[in-house]
Amino acid sequence: MEKELEQNDSATQLDTEIIECKKSLIQVMEEENQLLDKILELQTVLHQLVKEKNWENLNKNLDNLQVLSDQFVELEEKRESLSEKINISQDKEISPVLTQVRGKLQKSKIENHALNEYITTTRKFLQGVFDSVVPQRRNIVYSSKGEIVRPELKSLIIDQIL
C-alpha cells in the first residue's frame, strides 16, 4: 500500500513537471512567434531599403535584425531544452503554436532567399556593365599562393546615380 502511494506521488509529480514544461514551452514558442513577426517586418523594410539604395538606413536595420536574430537563437535554445521531455509534434496543445512558428520561419527563409537573389542579380548586372565599360587586363594573374586573382577595377567616375 505504501509503495502504491509513493508510485502515485511520483506519477503525480511527473505529470506536474510535464504540465509546467508544456506551459513554459508554449510561452517560449509564443515569444518566438512574436519575435518572428518583428523579423519579418524588418526583412520587408530591408528589401525596400536595398531597392531604394538607402545604405545608411540599411546598415542600421541590419544591426537591428542581428539583435532580433540573437534573441531568437536564445529562445530557440530554451525551446530545444524544454522539448526534450515532450513530443511537441504530437501534442495537441503545442501543435498549433509550433505550426505558426514553422510557417513564419519558412516565410522568413523565402524573404532571405528573395533578397539574396536580388542582390546577386544586381551585382552580376553591375559587374557586366563595369566589365564592358572599363577595359581590364585580360591576362590571368596569379597570387603568390598560385590562386587566380581577379583584377580590381581601376578608378572610374560616373556622372549619374545608378
How would you portray this structure in words?
The protein is mostly helical and 162 residues long. Helices cover 73% and strands 2% of the residues. It has 3 helices and 2 strands. It has a two-stranded antiparallel sheet with strand order 1-2. The longest helix has 51 residues, at 2-52. The model has no long low-confidence stretch (mean pLDDT 79).
Shape from CA axes? Answer: elongated
Portion in helices? over 70%
Counting H and I runs of at least 4 residues, what is the number of helices? 3
Q: Tally of extended strands? A: 2
Mean pLDDT rating? 79
How much of the residues is beta strand, in percent? under 5%
| SSE class | mainly alpha
Low-confidence stretches: none
Features:
mainly alpha; 2 strands; elongated; 162 residues; single chain; two-stranded antiparallel sheet
